[in-house]
Amino acid sequence: MRKIDQFLYREVKIAALRLPMVDMLFALGICLFSLAARLLLFPKISGDFVGFLDPWMDQIRRLGGIPSLGHDISNYSSAYMIIMSLLSYLPVDALYSLKAVSVIFDYIAAFAIMALIYGLTASPRRALVGMAAFLMLPTVLLNGAYWAQCDIIYGAFIILAITYYSYGDAPGAPKSRLTASARAFLLLGVALAFKLQTLLILPFFIILWLCPYRAGDGGRREIMAWHFLLLPMPYVLFTIPGIILGRSAISSLGVYFSQAEQYPWLTLNYPNIYAFFGQTFLSDYQIPELAYAGFLMTVCTLGLLAYVFYVKKVRMDAQMMMTLALFSLCLSLYGLPYMHERYGILVDVLAVVYAVLRPKKIPIAMGLIASSLMSYALFLFGVELLSPIYHALLQLVLVVALGMDLHRQLFTRPKSRIIIDDWRI
Which of 50, 124, 396, 410 is most exposed by smallest CB count within 10 Å? Predict the structure, then answer.
């Protein structure tokens, strides 16, 4: 064996893992090059930064940083406004500091994905491939490093919540007052404290409550009904500093209601069912009634999905769990009104995990990612690759294909299979 091969295949021990040096260098290279790509986009200024984030930061600085939490400055949650107020003390342009926070969470999410995939597959190489694929997602790159948006923050906490749940409470582990499932819901609550869109993943956790994920280690993964009460706790806690500093409790706690009233369009560049109506339709009919009807029909559809899982007494394995997570999220986004193009970022994140666990379904994952990128291109660059109707049709085909895959797993998979096989490269 050549000396370079001896070096590259020499194992390195990290905690409980033993990885060949080639895997370590691969991960390091992906992290460095993806970071360089993000840094190249830092000078780019988006319309949202000019119209919203930069004026907010100017006002925060004029008010003295932390004391600004006592004022109504933005329609963002208290959690993110705390971050902005802390960043205001740095002698750094707001454009760079805000983007830096999002990029930091890019890497937190990347390592959370790596931990999730490793926990589900026991394959270090699958985990590394998943991390690398996530860091190369064009929508994730554009969302933070170009657009200066913070969607990856709540996305990272959602992935961490799923990771905590999937690992469970291993037998022999130190006892804790909170089970892994309870800690997962606290992380989900932190995600909710940053973005209301966290609720889009809630149907998945409701189905997990009805039909727990079953792994081969015997760990406890039961979700208790009282765990759902943990969701609003972080949101309330993050509002306390502002209330102490003088902001009204109604204003602090009701920020998500003001967000819901800001945009009157049934869809804002997201390719869902409302794209079929067109702007002419929307100008002639009452939007609130359509929105309420669409919301109720989506709830009914998700309820049907939960009903099927419950009456079938499904005990999910890793592949089925992640397919369900992606499908329920896509179904919510496709049926609910007032969806923005950025709300699909979690679809892209879960699509990576889905593709790694089910390599034969990579075309579906790539289609979902490409669909998200087309929505971004329309808003950020004014490039319409597909008309809204054809884009919505493409998204419908992808959601149906994903649903058919979930159906096959529900009704044709061997019941004895618990976790997926190892994957060798």
Answer: 50
Sheet strands (E) in 195-278: 267-268
Instruction: Report the candidate in 253, 313, 268, 247 with the shortest Cα–Cα distance to residue 85.
Output: 247
Reference 350, options 154, 155, 182, 199; nearest CA is 155
Q: How far does CA 315 lie from the centroid of its chain?
A: 24
Residue 11: strand pairing partners: 20
Pair of tokens at residue 278: 């067109």
**Model pLDDT for residues 310-362, shown as the tens digit of each residue:** 999 998 999 999 999 999 999 999 999 999 999 999 999 999 999 999 999 99
Q: Among residues 40, 74, 228, which one has the least CA distance to residue 146? A: 40
pLDDT tens string 222-256:
899 999 999 999 999 999 999 999 999 999 999 99
Q: Based on DSSP, count helices (H) and strands (E) in the chain, helices before strands.
A: 20, 4
Long-range pairs of 167-172 with CB within 8 A, sequence gap ≥ 24: 167/119, 167/219, 168/215, 168/217, 168/219, 168/220, 168/221, 169/219, 169/220, 169/221, 170/217, 170/218, 170/219, 171/217, 171/218, 171/219
